[in-house]
Request: fold
Amino acid sequence: MSKPTFKQILDAHKNQVLLGKSYLNIAKGLLKADPVILQTGPTFFGLTTDGSLELAQMALARLYDQTRGAVTVQVLLAQARREASSFRRGSHREIIATIAKCERTVHGLGPVLTSIRKRRNEWLAHLDARTVTDPKALSARAKLTIPDLDRAFKETEDIVRELSSLYEGVIGKLEFLGGDDYKVALDWIRSAKCTFIENFEREFKTPWTGPRPKNCSANLLRMA
Reply:
């Protein structure tokens, strides 16, 4: 079986970081969104939020997988050491120092990655008997917060960006153009909901008593 090149591994890891960050940003954006807007489609928005959080965790799980033969960040760093002479920028000493710093970063992520691994093995990829018996117990065994995920993606992105800079002279954030376009969709829903309320008040000449989206002014009816 042919082995992937360093460039192929680096590109694959960039893609996983890009996707994982994007899933996480969508989930964070929806968690902070106006509840009135989310209630226009509670099943859709609820599943999208939960699904995005799960996909973000799975992206990290793939990057740091312990399955035999998996092409992980650790594999990327090991191959970088072997191929340091092929890097386009930096002296050999600078390249090795950067790799060593990245290895320390991975080590520092240990507790977060342990929780990710448990969640992957005991729920996200497999239905572990303990989790099926007591779903809440997994949260205690594998504590994980959104700041933990933010940190893991930021530090992993730093690793691949630094290696990319030294190896191929490419520097830049890993992000989709229009990665926050969900905000436009939410604003269209807000606008439509406000228009519905305005039309209701105009037609029935009575104030809307239900929840009102943010930035949707309460219209004073002229009952003349």
Notes: Confidence is low (pLDDT under 50) at residues 219-224. The longest helix spans residues 6-31.
